């Protein structure tokens, strides 16, 4: 119960900027509830004065009053419904914007350990559930509680001596509402977790549909989805059971209470202690009061489902990245002297042992340094430490002698351009993809970057030119074209350090030649750290660093390392033999 109170408080803090929506809606709910009481109140004069006493003066008046009541009901219901729906949509937008910002600033480690479906599910499904709390559940529960209050007021006013009988079932009804709501909370939490599984499976299989088809795994993936959907179905059936049993349970309680009232009031009429009109007004108010109690049961179940969603959304909003700017972090200036790695040690949270051990490396401004080694030796991990995607547990990385942890991450990353093996392009125009790191770049600057990246010729051949849409992840382009667009994007960025992570390893010979020419132009402008798979591409590097099991094993130029006959020479020999065999 304490947790529910805390969640509702947080929701109220979200709602506070829109409090006038709520205040106006509450006034409308109060009027709506009062009209219900007025309808029940009108039963006594209708029965006693019109039907029993034949008072002709009321024959016209009462219908006019009733019509007026329903006109008022229609107006206030419209206002209350529109205001609360508007509030719900505003809260959804507010939360989605905050949650998206939070997700973008989380550590890379979290993206490695959580599925994409987890993030998407909370952004869409959970926040939609939460919207129902704000716009529907809380509003309707408030309105129904006000209605019950007004109607029980009529009950007490009409027959105070019978009122105590009518509330006999209320404690039991309240207990049942609470019991069913708590069960629905647990079921709803499970439902949201299952929706993560559904979203994750869809995202992975649709994104990897080429692999699914290539391995003829359509039947297998369909079977996996059927099992996931079966779990969703079972959970939905539990939810349906709770919802289905809630209403008749309250009906039963209401039936017992009304039966006791009828029995008691019948004796009151026989003894001449009350009139039929009073009794009918009393019973009308009582039955109208139990009807909103039944609706409150269903609404409370929905409220619990929404609170379960709110809890998951707030859990995500309460997560903070471990890698943050230190207080009074400075702005990093362009590299003018050297980038240094001093005694770097690093391990992932999920790794059993260290990934990097005692790395010491000096890269002078304008130098081209290549990292080579077998897969898993720590090349990419070392490069990912430079933009602070991860934080080393030991040592420091210095940018002109300045520890990168002492400057803002924004200023640090503004000084770094990256081109990787699988560059991410967005489902947008070529213009917007190239200008991603410099949003206000002119067309002349974009064309110059494309020309330097050997991409101008194929872009000019497209009917839409810079405005051509490239599809999801650049699907409308070839692998080499995607790489060249990524290189143009890096060229346009005003950075001083370039990181190339196996940028040509997945290309054919013709594409690799075009891309390599573009990379050579790119590297002339930057201090470059190259992670290489094809050793032929880094022969002209100023230095080659050979890594083995997370440590630096050898360092030197291509010729000097070959002359040593060590690990680098063996790697070259293996790759040369492999290429010869292919030829």
From TrEMBL:
Q: What UniProt keywords apply to this chain's record, in alphabetical order?
A: ATP-binding, Membrane, Nucleotide-binding, Transmembrane, Transmembrane helix
Q: Where are the transmembrane segments?
A: 20-41, 61-83, 133-156, 162-181, 252-270
Residue ranges occupied by any ABC transporter domain in the UniProt entry: 339-574
Mind naming one GO cellular-component term on file for this protein? plasma membrane
Q: Name the Gene Ontology molecular function terms of this record.
A: ABC-type oligopeptide transporter activity; ATP binding; ATP hydrolysis activity
Q: Which InterPro entries match?
A: AAA+_ATPase, ABC1_TM_dom, ABC1_TM_sf, ABC_transporter-like_ATP-bd, ABC_transporter-like_CS, P-loop_NTPase, Type_1_exporter
Membrane topology value: Multi-pass membrane protein
Work out whether the entry's keyword set contains ATP-binding: yes
The protein's matches in PROSITE patterns, at most eight in alphabetical order, are given as: ABC_TM1F, ABC_TRANSPORTER_1, ABC_TRANSPORTER_2
Q: What is this protein called?
A: Lipid A ABC exporter, fused ATPase and inner membrane subunits MsbA
Question: What species does this protein belong to?
Answer: Magnetococcus marinus (strain ATCC BAA-1437 / JCM 17883 / MC-1)
């Amino acid at each position: 119960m304490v947790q529910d109170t805390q969640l509702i408080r947080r929701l109220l803090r979200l709602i506070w900027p829109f409090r006038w929506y709520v205040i106006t809606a509450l006034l409308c709910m109060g009027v709506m509830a009062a009209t219900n009481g007025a309808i029940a109140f009108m039963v006594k004069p209708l029965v006693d004065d019109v039907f029993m006493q034949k008072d002709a003066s009321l024959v016209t008046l009462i219908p006019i009053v009733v019509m007026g009541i329903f006109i008022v009901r229609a107006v206030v219901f419209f206002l209350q419904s529109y205001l609360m729906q508007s509030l719900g949509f505003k809260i959804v937008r507010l939360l989605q914007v905050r949650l998206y910002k939070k997700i973008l600033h989380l550590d890379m480690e979290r993206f490695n350990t959580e599925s994409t479906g987890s993030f998407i599910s909370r952004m869409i499904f959970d926040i939609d559930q939460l919207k129902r709390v704000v716009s529907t559940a809380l509003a309707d529960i408030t309105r129904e509680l006000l209605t019950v209050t007004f109607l029980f007021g009529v009950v007490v006013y009409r027959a105070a001596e019978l009122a105590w009988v009518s509330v006999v079932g209320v404690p039991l009804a309240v207990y049942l509402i609470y019991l069913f709501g708590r069960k629905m909370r647990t079921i709803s939490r499970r439902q949201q977790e299952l929706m993560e599984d559904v979203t994750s499976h869809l995202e992975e299989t649709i994104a990897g549909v080429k692999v699914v088809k290539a391995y003829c795994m359509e039947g297998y993936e369909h079977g996996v989805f059927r099992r996931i959907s079966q779990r969703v179905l079972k959970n939905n059936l539990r939810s349906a059971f709770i919802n289905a049993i809630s209403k008749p349970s309250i009906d039963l309680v209401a039936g017992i209470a009304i039966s006791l009232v009828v029995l008691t009031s019948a004796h009151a009429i026989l003894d001449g202690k009350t009139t039929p009109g009073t009794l009918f007004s009393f019973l009308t108010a009582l039955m109208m009061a139990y009807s909103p109690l039944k609706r409150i049961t269903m609404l409370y179940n929905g409220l619990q489902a929404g609170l379960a969603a709110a809890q998951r959304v707030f859990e995500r909003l309460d997560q903070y990245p471990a890698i943050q700017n230190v207080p009074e972090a400075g702005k990093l200036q362009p590299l003018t002297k050297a980038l240094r790695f001093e005694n770097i040690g690093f391990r992932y949270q999920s790794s059993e042992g260290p990934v990097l051990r005692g790395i010491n490396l000096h890269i002078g401004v304008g130098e081209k340094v290549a990292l080579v080694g077998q897969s898993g030796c720590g090349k990419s991990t070392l490069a990912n430490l430079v933009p602070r995607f991860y934080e080393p547990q030991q040592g420091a990385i210095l940018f002109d002698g300045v520890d990168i942890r002492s400057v803002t991450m924004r200023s640090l990353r503004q000084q770094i351009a990256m081109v990787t093996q699988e560059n991410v392009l967005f489902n947008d125009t070529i213009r917007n993809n190239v200008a991603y790191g410099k949003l206000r770049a002119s067309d002349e600057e974009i064309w110059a970057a494309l020309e330097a990246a050997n991409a101008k010729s194929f872009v000019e051949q497209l009917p839409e030119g810079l405005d051509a849409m490239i599809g999801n992840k650049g699907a409308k382009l070839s692998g080499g074209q995607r790489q060249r667009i990524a290189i143009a994007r890096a060229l346009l960025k005003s950075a001083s350090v370039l990181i190339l992570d196996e940028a040509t390893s997945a290309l054919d010979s013709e594409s690799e030649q075009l891309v390599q020419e573009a990379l050579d132009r790119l590297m002339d402008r930057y201090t470059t750290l190259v992670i290489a798979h094809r050793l032929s591409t880094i022969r002209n590097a100023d230095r080659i660093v050979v890594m083995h099991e997370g440590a630096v094993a050898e360092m030197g130029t291509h010729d000097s390392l070959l002359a040593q006959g060590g690990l680098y020479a063996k790697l070259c020999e293996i790759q040369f033999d492999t290429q010869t065999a292919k030829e």
